[in-house]
Amino acid sequence: MAIEVRIPTILRTYTGGEKAVEGGGATLAELFADLETRHAGIQARIVDDGQLRRFVNVYLNDEDVRFLDGINTKLTDGDNVTILPAVAGGMV
């Protein structure tokens, strides 16, 4: 099962600069574990204590997984997963 994962700039140090990588798994949790086998350290930047980190947004085919089943969201062949760090700030 091939799933394309789009990697934000801040995490590309783990993927050798690649903007997108392929992974596999029946759920997001399995996908992130699979990515960890080839891109050591990336999983800890996305997942904490078995849940998505608070300031990391993950989209499955442009749908926020927090409104699906979170880390247990099921995946199918050909899905696209996008990882985006939350952005905050500005002038007061």
UniProtKB/TrEMBL annotation:
Protein's name in the database: MoaD/ThiS family protein
UniProt superkingdom: Bacteria
Pfam families for the chain: ThiS
PANTHER family assigned to the protein according to its UniProt record, in alphabetical order: SULFUR CARRIER PROTEIN CYSO, SULFUR CARRIER PROTEIN SLR0821-RELATED
